[in-house]
Amino acid sequence: DVGGRVYIHGQHCIDEAQSSLYPEVARLLNPTRVVDVGANYGFTGAVFAKFFPKADLVLVEPDPKLGEYIRRNLALNGVEDFTLLSAICGDEERDSVPFGINPKSSQDNRVKPLDGWSTVDLQEVTLSQILDDQGDDPVFIKIDTQGFEKQVFAGGARFLESSDNWLIKTEFAPDWLESQGTKPSELLGSLVAVHDVIEDPELGADSDVSLPRLFQTPMTAEDVESFIADVRSRGKSGLGWTDLLLAPRNRNWK
């Protein structure tokens, strides 16, 4: 469908596969586990397997029909060792939660369905549950849940507060957040209050990137409203979005 075809010619896919961010994450953090929340067709999972070949790879994707594509696409990229969870990643552990299926694009399914969407009942897991045995070993986490990020962070709070050895890349899309009942300013304000938060610089393959240098000037509470307004302006009708990088204040990176 439309959602799957974006991977064929999307420049952002090329940029992601060649990003200079991930070699820097491998050098500095050297994660033993990578968690891809919102794995979709397995594209980012394949990218992470390329850059972090020794890490345990955990993919979380709620849409039941995408599991087949994830397995196929990872196999085509020589990735055999991974864990796939067909579940919602949220703020509670529950046996059955409805999940919205977009009839036009598998790129934009959402936990809380929009008008006219069907739903399927799925298990809900939490990020802390997935990382229960991680201890203080380094972990890299990607979150892309079409506006459900507040719940993902809430479900990961126990782990994120107990470890200083992680890095998160998360989508930040104000309109999508609002569709899931989240005020963008409240989410970003809460993240800025407890973590170091910067915008992903989206640097190309030949770019010189230094995470310590980037995190020297994290976002502050005073930046939140103007940053959200700027992100909205990047898309038509206020539908702009970006990615954020989050790190612990007292990070224990090598």
Structure description:
With 254 residues, this protein is an alpha/beta fold. It contains eleven helices and ten strands. It has a seven-stranded mixed sheet with strand order 3-2-1-7-8-10-9, with helices on both faces. It has a three-stranded mixed sheet with strand order 4-6-5. The termini are far apart.
Keywords, please?
254 residues, alpha/beta, seven-stranded mixed sheet, three-stranded mixed sheet, 36% helix
Determine the strand fraction and express it as a percent band.
Answer: 15-25%
Count of extended strands = 10
Class derived from helix and strand content = alpha/beta
Strand order of the largest sheet: 3-2-1-7-8-10-9
Largest sheet: number of strands, sense, barrel closure: 7 strands, mixed
Poorly predicted runs are: none
- Globally, the shape reads globular
Percent of residues in helices comes to: 25-40%
User: What Rg is obtained from the alpha carbons, in whole angstroms?
Assistant: 17 Å
Q: Please state the average pLDDT score.
A: 95
Distance between the termini: 43 Å
Number of helical segments with 4 or more residues: 11
Order of helices and strands: HHHEHEHEEEEHEHEHHEHHE
